[in-house]
Amino acid sequence: MFRSLPTRSVQLTRSLTTHAAPLKSTTPVTRHNWKKDEIQGIYNAPLLDLVFRAASVHRQHHDPSKIQLCTLMNIKTGGCTEDCSYCSQSSRYSTPTKASRLIDIEPVLEAARKAKANGSTRFCMGAAWRDLAGRKRGFERILDMVREVRGMGMEVCTTLGMLSPEQARQLKEAGLTAYNHNLDTSREFYPQVITTRSYDERLDTISAVREAGISVCSGGILGLGESDSDRVGLIHEVANMPEHPESFPVNALVPIPGTPLEGNDPVSVHILIRTIATARIAMPTTIIRLAAGRNTLPETDQAMCFMAGANAVFTGEQMLTTPCSPWDEDKAMMGRWGLDGMRSFEQVGVAKKEAARLEQVVTSREASAATL
Ligand code: SF4
């Protein structure tokens, strides 16, 4: 199956300027009409030219010294009916991951407090299932988790599979900041990775999240056996959404024994940097999240990813099922490179959505006061 990355080298062209033009007042901050060829042209540029341009765009829209620290917790592990071929939590594969039930609230709050004390400003909770159908009580417990973690002043994110518009609305009301639902790869390559959920179903969930006023976190996984064109296809898909996702996670496959992709070769750091830089240029205001696989990268490679526009990491004890770089190592690394943690709700797009939520809360409180 998809055991190795394509060996075709990218066609290098020197069509890029080596600096980003200054923004004029009439220049739209974001574009949503990218042509795939345009993005392919950016992706194909000589790597250092590409990084230089991405770094310039990054500096126009973000404080380059700031990295968002996020901590991820698996609140319901394994036993998932989906067949995502990279995932150790699918019940279709024989993997070391054991299935468990949805955990109680208190361990979640304890983990969130610890994450906050260590400098994480976003707390993400993941549950391994296709959707929330038939999980009324579990969903209520998750809504409570969201309320409590949000009450700590942290950004709170969940990844719970497919959502209906009503479920998205309830999550928003509970105070959810962001919802993660990755597209994983291009529309063309996707059926070779997952067959139990369509690309359009993923897009429907993303639309429900956006319509509910929740920030969208949607990105991909590199190293699935995809081509350069698929990596460009993924960026093209998200960069042409009506609103860019506020967060674009870039994962490097961590091959899990027992999954169909267990023998895949690791993705090269050049592909990782090229993908991050291209996403940064196509989606200038989005947070680009260096996610799974980061702990295998030497510090200098991570720094190059930050230079190319990555400005968030997962830090703590564990990703969902793969290792994570610990807080103390990350703090030391960031100190060496002059980087610092981002504050909660510092990203403009996320802050706007949060402001709208707070306004709604104030308005509904005023309305109920008026009817008393
Ligand atoms: S990635 Fe998510 S949906 Fe896919 S098998 Fe794993 S837990 Fe299930």
UniProtKB/TrEMBL annotation:
Pathway(s) where this gene product acts: Cofactor biosynthesis; biotin biosynthesis; biotin from 7,8-diaminononanoate: step 2/2
GO terms classed as biological process: biotin biosynthetic process
Keywords of the record: 2Fe-2S, 4Fe-4S, Biotin biosynthesis, Iron, Iron-sulfur, Metal-binding, S-adenosyl-L-methionine, Transferase
PROSITE patterns recorded: RADICAL_SAM
Cofactor(s) needed: [2Fe-2S] cluster; [4Fe-4S] cluster
Binding site for [4Fe-4S] cluster: 80, 84, 87
First and last residue of the signal peptide: none
Tagged with keyword Iron-sulfur: yes
SUPFAM superfamilies named in the record: Radical SAM enzymes
Cofactor binding note from Swiss-Prot or TrEMBL: Binds 1 [2Fe-2S] cluster. The cluster is coordinated with 3 cysteines and 1 arginine. Binds 1 [4Fe-4S] cluster. The cluster is coordinated with 3 cysteines and an exchangeable S-adenosyl-L-methionine.
Entry similarity comment: Belongs to the radical SAM superfamily. Biotin synthase family.
Name this polypeptide is given: biotin synthase
Organism: Gymnopilus junonius
